[in-house]
């Protein structure tokens, strides 16, 4: 049985776009049967009235249940048994449940099994509430009131177009490339999509990221995942609740990931007035792939990676051993000791829980190594980081100065027992 969609509206012409593009093609190819009906066909008075004033008073008009009942009985034929695989009465309303990709998938499932969706497009103040109540009581009709967003439209037609387009493109055979559905925003991984680029490689001075032209598919997949996680964290942090941060020890093969991450995050800990050149020079000299390879071989160091949804978003590096700086060595009260030397999380992920997970794992590893205390240096002006360290039990022990490029900088030295 062909999937069937009926739309009932007082403005059937509003639904004309259903003849166009992919939905229009799907109809032509017989993948879905869509019919648009004029609600006024079911009125019985001379003026073809569909609305009346609200009981209880108030502004605006409400659509009459008797007219809607006639229309929906005709369109849905409840109890008629013609659609054993499911009948859905879909009512767009700003007071409905938020329409999501999950609901689109459920509705596409109903259609793919030869089911039916009838969309009732309200106008004015909406449809008399007894209409949904009545059809919800029918065993073979599922009523779904959905909102396409937190704003108010004049009528349900645009919402109907939104829902139908989102659902029909999921039907088997409608899209040429089925993989494009899987890889999109709001897909199975619950992330927004990574940014996309095509020809030309340089446009108005803006270059396509070099990695996408590298041909290295493994690194491209990692890069896309990182960008997807970053974008989701920035734009829709609520979606990341489904992806708690995890922490693991860095392995030999992670040197490249670490060097990339270190280069991308180093500036986060720099004072705001530090020059690009100074920062770039520091990254070139100190945060190289070779350095990280060496760090990963060094038994006195432990490097941890934080991952969110499979993307590396932060790292720490700690070093067990005597502080090189004699002043710090004199100030640190316990022996043996360790330095939390690097602690970086991508800016967009600062509120994702990744930093706390990294800190917990870093301190736990220090305890496992039998270390009674750990110290760190944090830029004196980096109030955000200092707050974070204080929250995790560190207190100020003293200060130190160091050089980045041409500048003298000063750090706070902080310490905590374990
Ligand atoms: N009085 C209604 C309320 O406050 O919930 C608003 C009615 S609205 C002016 C008229 C019609 O537009 C609704 O019955 C519904 O069909 C449609 N509509 C408006 N905003 C919508 C939204 N965000 N999502 C889905 N449908 C919407």
Question: Which regions are unreliable across 5 or more consecutive residues at pLDDT < 50?
Answer: none
- By secondary-structure content and strand pairing, the structural class works out as alpha/beta
Number-wise, the strands total: 16
Encode the helix/strand succession as letters.
EHEEEHEHEHEHHEEHEHHHEEHEHEHEE
Instruction: Average the pLDDT over all residues and give the rounded result.
Output: 94
Say what the CATH topology of the largest domain is: Alpha/beta knot
H/I helix tally = 13
Rg over CA atoms: 30 Å
Task: Provide the CATH architecture of the largest domain.
Answer: 3-Layer(aba) Sandwich
Major sheet characteristics:
7 strands, mixed
Number of domain units: 3
CATH class of the largest domain: Alpha Beta
Q: Helix coverage percent of residues?
A: 25-40%
Widest sheet, order of strands: 10-11-12-13-14-16-15
Percent of residues in β-strands: 15-25%
Bound molecules: S-adenosylmethionine
